[in-house]
Amino acid sequence: MKKTLFILLILATSLFAELKNELATKDFLKKDIKVIDIRTPSEWKETGIIKDSYTIMFFDEKGAYDVEKFLKELNKIIKKDEQFALICRTGSRTQIISDFLANKIGYRVINLQGGLMKLMSEGYKPVQYIIK
Question: Which pTM does this prediction carry?
Answer without folding.
Answer: 0.86
